[in-house]
């Protein structure tokens, strides 16, 4: 897969957008224009007035902290499976191409849409849950519903920003491979190399990501000049970043921007990303200025499964 060239700039800060009007169903042209600039020039933005309860966020963070404090042997009982659902152990090795290879100083817990096993849909399956922690299950499911609702609002905004029908993306997410993850970054005293930090430099693979981060900081994004720009935590905001699929859909008008995490705080850092991914059975191609003579269509599910296989060897995704 080759990404279309993006117009990402040598930015020095990340835009902050109030999306309250979009949440309310009012497609304010000023906001849509600002959204277009943020997605085109940076590929990252903060959103406020998003409609998600911060109390819900805090409840999930506390439940996640309890889960990560459990003995490793307990967590490994629900180790991540070939559908990328379950516990991802600390210090997993990533092999997703030379630009992403490295050891991530992070552990995580993943869930997706709870579906029965299906030989015709190899990334579908039931979630795994730790025994004796009903609060984690309850909090993750409530959070998933709330933030996925925000994702649908943002899809409409992205479509309008690209000059498309506001419902253009909806058909691509009828049975999404969206995944919710809670992350724990233990303190790391000497993160000295890009291949041994909280999360190694990478671009997200799917549609887009909605991230909550605690007040430790550590997220950095890379501008066109190769400089790392901090994305510090801002109260009552989410960080939104676009993935490779959105860059393809936009034919390079929007940017899937490289980023990394380094926990320099000497404290335990927690974050909660929702990876908003389309349905496995859709074909991916540019939606704007599509040239059938020079552009190809590929299956999203195959692409994502191959990528996850390379990124998470511990999941043992069959070839």
Automatic annotation (TrEMBL):
Residues 175-278 form the Fe2OG dioxygenase domain. Belongs to the iron/ascorbate-dependent oxidoreductase family. The lineage of its organism: unclassified sequences, metagenomes, ecological metagenomes. This is 2-Oxobutyrate oxidase, putative. Gene3D superfamilies: B-lactam Antibiotic, Isopenicillin N Synthase, Chain. It holds the Pfam family 2OG-FeII_Oxy. Keywords: Iron, Metal-binding. PROSITE patterns: FE2OG_OXY (PS51471). One of its GO terms (molecular function) is metal ion binding. InterPro entries: DIOX_N, IPNS-like_FE2OG_OXY, IPNS-like_sf, Oxoglu/Fe-dep_dioxygenase_dom, Plant_2OG-oxidoreductases.
């Amino acid at each position: 897969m080759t990404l279309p060239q993006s117009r990402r700039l040598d930015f020095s800060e990340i835009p902050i957008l109030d999306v309250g009007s979009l949440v309310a169903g009012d497609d304010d042209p000023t906001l849509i224009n600002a959204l277009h600039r943020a997605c085109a020039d940076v590929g990252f933005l903060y959103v406020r007035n998003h409609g998600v309860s911060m109390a819900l966020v805090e409840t999930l963070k506390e439940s996640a902290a309890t889960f990560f404090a459990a003995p490793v042997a307990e967590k490994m009982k629900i180790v991540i499976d070939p559908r990328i659902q379950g516990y991802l152990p600390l210090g997993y090795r990533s092999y997703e191409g030379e630009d992403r290879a490295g050891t991530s100083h992070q552990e995580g817990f993943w869930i997706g849409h709870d579906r029965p096993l299906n030989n015709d849909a190899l990334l579908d399956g039931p979630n795994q849950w730790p025994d004796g922690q009903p609060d984690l299950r309850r909090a993750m499911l409530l959070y998933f519903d709330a933030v996925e609702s925000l994702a649908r609002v943002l899809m409409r905004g992205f479509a309008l920003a690209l000059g498309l029908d506001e419902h253009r993306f909806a058909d691509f997410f009828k049975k999404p491979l969206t995944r919710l993850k809670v992350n724990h970054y233990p303190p790391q005293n000497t993160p000295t190399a890009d291949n041994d930090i909280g999360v190694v430099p990478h671009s997200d693979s799917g549609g887009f990501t909605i991230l909550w981060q605690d007040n430790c900081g550590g997220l950095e994004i890379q501008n066109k000049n190769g400089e790392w720009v901090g994305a510090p935590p801002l109260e009552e905001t989410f960080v939104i970043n676009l993935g490779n699929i959105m860059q393809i859909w936009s034919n390079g008008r929007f940017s899937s921007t490289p980023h990394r995490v380094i926990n320099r705080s000497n404290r335990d850092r927690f974050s909660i990303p929702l990876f908003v991914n389309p349905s496995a059975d859709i074909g991916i191609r540019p939606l704007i200025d599509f040239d059938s003579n020079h552009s190809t269509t590929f299956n999203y599910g195959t692409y994502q499964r191959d990528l996850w296989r390379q990124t998470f060897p511990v999941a043992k995704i069959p070839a």
